[in-house]
């Protein structure tokens, strides 16, 4: 059963702070290449470990946001998960968080989308959108 998701003013303020941080601290191609190498070496420190990139939603969800340069260009990278095993956000909840972060897309606009296992029993929805600012 899905729990209701409400974006209260304090969460909306934090969402804006996370988005502002991502815009001010874009992840360039060289940092992305170092991440690929670190992942291959088993030493990856995910961007979600940077608290400035994490939105904590009181009903039990986390959203992580970065702006990343890949070989094909710049992208918004949005990830949403729950600390509760087996729980993922519903599409409408994802859209509410995207809107709160001023990301001008809905979940079904993603140019790439995947579910990533982040720990045993826990997964995250990942979405990428072209960044054209």
Structure write-up:
The structure is a single chain. The chain has 133 residues and is an alpha+beta fold. Strands 1-2-3-5-4 form a five-stranded antiparallel beta sheet, with helices on one face. The chain has helices at residues 9-24, 29-40, 91-100; strands at 54-57, 61-70, 73-81, 112-119, 122-130. The mean pLDDT is 87. It is built from three helices and five strands, in the order ααβββαββ. Strand 1 and strand 2 form a beta hairpin.
Element layout with pairings:
Elements: H1 9-24, H2 29-40, E1 54-57, E2 61-70, E3 73-81, H3 91-100, E4 112-119, E5 122-130
Antiparallel strand pairs: 1-2, 2-3, 3-5, 4-5
| Domains, number | 1
Strand order of the largest sheet: 1-2-3-5-4
Class derived from helix and strand content: alpha+beta
Strand share of the residues? 25-35%
- For the record, give the distance between the C-alpha atoms at the N and C termini, rounded to a whole number: 38 Å
Residue-averaged pLDDT:
87
Number of strands: 5
- How can the largest sheet be summarized? 5 strands, antiparallel
Rg:
14 Å
